[in-house]
Amino acid sequence: MKVAVFGPDRRVGVVHENTVVDINAAYAKYLAETTDTARPLVEAAAAVPAQLNAFIEEGARALEGARAALEYLTDQAQDARGVTGEQLRFALDEVKLHAPVEGASRILCALANFADHMQSAAENSQRADTEATLQRLLAGGPKFFIKDHRAVSASGDPLRYPARTERLDYEAEIAVVIGRAGRDIKGDDFASHVWGYTLFNDWSIRDNVAFGPDFAYSKNFDSSATVGPWIVVNEGQDLQDIPVECRVNGELRQSGNTSSMVHAFAALGEHLSRDTTLLPGDLIASGTPKGTAVDSTRQEADGSLPGTLFLKPGDVVEVSSALIGTIRNEVVKPTD
């Protein structure tokens, strides 16, 4: 099931055959037309909520209700109008899909989590201290940073080129979405806390990056976390076998798979949940494979990076997976 957030009211929808179905309203219709319930709208609000995090928290009941409503609407219903006559099904190209992240959900990002990415960066560095830093990042347990949830953007949103950089980079990633709250989660139990997975572009500033107190500054700016286009839920996919690619202006730059993560999602979940409760709707991003501009560019002796492969206004970046879909964004001028 592909669960999206759509429209001006940011309602939960299920993507089906190039349409998105308002699944809360569709479930109310299902109840009104197939049961003797006196208050279908009230029951639907409780069982199949219209807002994302409430829908996630409702767990199996919401997914089962969504599945029943979709089957009824597709195979049995006489029309595609809701209890109050509202439209239930919308063409994907007619509605705005928002990033499937709600409210204060945390975006927790793995750092230095693909060996080929880090090795390529080390090989392209002419500074011994840079290579030593990269090797330290690979050593030991998981490393992570936080993206501001208010910096989230959706597929189709323009990416305003940050005025403070001359080296803007892309990072194609997979993110898992937490479905069941947990603290001190054991790695072998982490999968039971995962609700689904989605695409993630970790836009990054690469000018004079230092892995210290200011590192988060290079990772956070308006629209710097593109998520979507939807969350794939409950399809039995091995989280450590999800492909991901990145294209810039149609040119393939990255092609990887979560099977190559240094620390698997289970290890990340165990690490991040120590003394901290992971909550429904939180995201954990995988880290990125080889092929970013920074790991593909030969560093000058003074530590500077030639700008050829870095993004510029007008570039179109697509992050995709055969198991999910595609998120696409155009980089625009800082003044746009």
Automatic annotation (TrEMBL):
The keyword Transmembrane is assigned to this record: no
Name assigned to this protein: Fumarylacetoacetate hydrolase family protein
UniProt entry tagged with the keyword Metal-binding: yes
Biological classification of the source: Bacteria, Bacillati, Actinomycetota, Actinomycetes, Kitasatosporales
GO biological process: small molecule metabolic process
Record key words, sorted: Hydrolase, Metal-binding
InterPro entries: FAH, Fumarylacetoacetase-like_C, Fumarylacetoacetase_C_sf
Organism: Streptomyces himalayensis subsp. aureolus
GO molecular function: hydrolase activity; metal ion binding
Cited Pfam families: FAA_hydrolase
Segments forming domain Fumarylacetoacetase-like C-terminal: 107-332
Assigned protein family: Belongs to the FAH family.
